Amino acid sequence: MEQKTLTATARTERKKGAAGRLRRSGKIPCVVYGREEPVSITIDAHEFGRTFKTISESQIVNVNIDGNGRECLIKDYDQDILTGSVKHVDFYEIERGKLLRTNVHVETEGSPRGVREGGVLETPTRELEIECMPADIPDHITIDISLLEIGDAIHAGDITPPEGVQIISNLEQVLAMVTQQRVEEEVSEEGEGEAGAEGAASVPESGDSESE
């Protein structure tokens, strides 16, 4: 897959309100962590938004800082709740030839048998932590859920990862399961009332029970 490139500029201003001024001018304040001391940078918000739509967080991005390229992963980002715009990004610089740990997205394929029988599909976890060489990072890991019956589950330990990839997540972690749909049995108040009335009618009055 073609590696994406982001153009960045080293950021030196640390005065109060500097980050806000950058955002208002269409820039995103960022930090690159990893092999050396953390480096504060800025990137164009429009360029990042366009690139961010086409990559996953497990995909290596070339961050070009004033002509000096650094291969990085997007480690974290801060997003505005109302507008959805990205306010800050943390990059992690990788080192070729050295193992690294990162999270990859888990995708499902197929339609579970159990769902067709009335069950409910649940996917409690959509990410896995893995360890591998930078060149072996998968865009995602796909699990086939088509054979799941009601009561079945797929755990992290059930997955055969791609070559060169080791799963670090808890192997008992549930990725997908089909559960029985719960149906609450409700007793209508009207039904209870009718039962009560019938019970009352069956009890004879004390006067009627005496023989003449």
Written account of the structure:
The model has no long low-confidence stretch (mean pLDDT 85). The termini are far apart. This protein is elongated. It folds into two domains: 4-93, Ribosomal Protein L25, Chain P (Beta Barrel), CATH 2.40.240; 100-179, RNA Polymerase Alpha Subunit, Chain A, domain 2 (Beta Complex), CATH 2.170.120. The chain has a six-stranded mixed beta barrel. Strands 10-7-9-12 form a four-stranded mixed sheet, with no helix packed on it. It has a three-stranded antiparallel sheet with strand order 8-13-11, with no helix packed on it. It is an alpha+beta fold and 212 residues long. 16% of the residues lie in helices and 38% in strands.
Quick synopsis:
With 212 residues, the chain is α+β, with helices and mostly antiparallel strands.
Classify the fold: give the CATH topology of the largest domain: Ribosomal Protein L25, Chain P
Number of continuous helical runs: 4
- Secondary-structure element order, as H and E? EHEEHEEEEHEEEEEEH
CATH secondary-structure class of the largest domain? Mainly Beta
Helix content: 10-25%
Structural class: alpha+beta
What coarse outline follows from CA principal-axis ratios? Answer: elongated
How many domain regions?
Answer: 2
Uncertain residue ranges: none
Note the main sheet. Answer: 6 strands, mixed, barrel
Distance between the termini: 103 Å
From the alpha-carbon coordinates, what is the Rg to the nearest angstrom? Answer: 30 Å
Give the quaternary arrangement of the chains: single chain
Number of strands: 13
Estimate the mean pLDDT confidence.
85
Please list the strands of the largest sheet in the order they lie side by side: 1-3-2-6-5-4
- CATH superfamily placement of the largest domain: Ribosomal Protein L25, Chain P
Amount of beta strand: 35-45%
